Amino acid sequence: xxxxxxxxxxxxxVTIDQRALPHEVRExxxxxxxxxxxxxxxxxxxxxxxxxVTGAFGVVLAxxxxxxxxxxxxxxxxxxxxxxxxAVNLAWGVRRALSALPSGPQAVLDxxxxxxxxxxxxxxxxxxxxxxxxxxxxxxxxxxLLTHCNTGRLATTAFGTAIGALRVLSAxxxxxxxxxxxxxxxxxxxxxxxxxxxxAGIPHRLTIDSAAAWAMATGQVDCVLVGADRITADGSVAxxxxxxxxxxxxxxxxxxxxxxxxxxxxxxxxxTGAEIVVEERAAGEITHVGGIATAPKNTDVFNPxxxxxxxxxxxxxxxxxxxxxxxxxxxxxxxGAVNSPATTAIAGSGTAASAAAAAGSETADPPATxxxxxxxxxxxxxxxxxxxATEKVCAARKSAASERIANVARxxxxxxxxxxxxxxxxxxxxDHTVITGSGLSKGELTASDMVTVTIADSQPVSGTRRPxxxxxxxxxxxxxxxxxxxxxxxxxxxxxxxxxxxxxLRFTGYELIKGLGATGAIDIxxxxxxxxxxxxxxxxxxxxxxxxxxxxxxxxxxxxxTAWGATLAQARDRAECLEAMCELVTLTxxxxx
Length: 593
Hints:
By secondary structure, this protein is an alpha+beta fold. It has 3 domains: 114 residues, translation initiation factor eif-2b, domain 1 (Four Helix Bundle (Hemerythrin (Met), subunit A)); 177 residues, Translation initiation factor eif-2b, domain 2 (Rossmann fold); 198 residues, 3-Layer(aba) Sandwich (L-fuculose-1-phosphate Aldolase), CATH 3.40.225.10. Helices cover 37% and strands 19% of the residues. It contains 16 helices and 28 strands. The protein has a 9-stranded mixed beta sheet with strand order 23-22-21-20-24-28-27-26-25, sandwiched between helices. The protein has an 8-stranded mixed beta sheet with strand order 6-5-4-7-10-15-16-19, with helices on both faces. The chain has a 4-stranded mixed beta sheet with strand order 11-8-9-14, with helices on one face. α1 packs antiparallel against α2, α2 packs antiparallel against α3 and α5 packs across α6. The radius of gyration is 28 Å and the shape is elongated. Pfam families: Aldolase_II (PF00596), IF-2B (PF01008).
């Protein structure tokens, strides 16, 4: 079958039996409607696009079993479509094949073969658009990506959707690693996605589903990429159980959450996610693992196969047509029909445009038999769609940064490092930084007490408070380094050590020096303190620009210390290392040992 996971051979569907992976690559031959229905129900064939195409071939088998009997064929088609109710592609594929029945059995087969041929091209176009978007939202760095369930050539027929985007990004050399959720209870991530990524040579790590949120919290994820089984008119996404939780965690931590799916997964006839029928599966999938009971006998079970993620948690939905403009609510036409969100091509993505062109046209309009209303990509609106997605990510990142800053500030206040209203903390978000407001007790700080300022000129752009008086120190560090977070505090030992000292203090021999990115010895600059804080910032920026290898900490004489890092946790840790080292100097009387 080559790159495709499904083929039509001698009057039967030939595919990979996904139940046998990763231990065995076993070919499965489906020659009857019963076999097709069973394969779909038992997940031998799974994934929305894959079951859509398989369902179409099921209609072909029905026409062969009941030649000339339209009523029987239609009944069999209904049985196939009902095999899994949540994924819209199955019913779509069945309807599309059935629509050719008036022209005869050969026309039905031709339609199914056309769907098979289209699927790989459609997936490649959607994946390329998604990869372009990821790189727009997370530019200029190797990407740490997270994916859930399986969305590769096994779940489609070729290339894949979300995994397809991983393939494109990997081919561009843009992937550092992929974190793969195991995807309980049937372990599609562990059994299938890890197998596909290994086959493609994409670096990855497997993790338990419940560790994903912690990976985001600890800065190990830049973007989440998932597929979809149904996308309603309001932009709600039904996907493998666990997707909703990932979206909540991603929004909490300001991480882009991108859904990649073909247009055939969009369902304009279902207005909202609340109307989706969520399939529940057998209790044994949870109570047993590998045939061995892991729960007491007769334990009641809740085993939904899918969940529904609302559109406000989704950064973007991307199809072969480009970026889908998600609407806050479904829009009703005068006739009461629901309009689906429009799609726009992603501007500046020549590779995506080429992939879409390869799919048959520059915009690859969906077939007329799609259950979702066809959408027309509007190139001139693409930048607006990207701007909206970018703004959504930035807003989430600012919110997450505000929460982190408030938490760290309260901790440093309790340690006596931010007495009264002293001290300030910030995090970089794009061209801005979120910073603590001025004149506030850090022990009572909340996320609403933050201000967003422009790094270039330190001017506030949002927030109800005045920005910290030391804002220019923070922005100076951001302009001169690649820091993502800055902590300015007044720990007693380090502050005392900075009084009456030369332009720098040398420390040698202390193990804590390693925590500041050096070994053996470190020279930490001491800047004079004066009332003109912008001048202090200018001195710091000039020094850091002239000394790119300067340590990520500094003293301001009699005032305190400033530390920075790739994350807020790292900036805080570096401040702790400097204060601890200064305390040891106080105890020993020696900076050099």
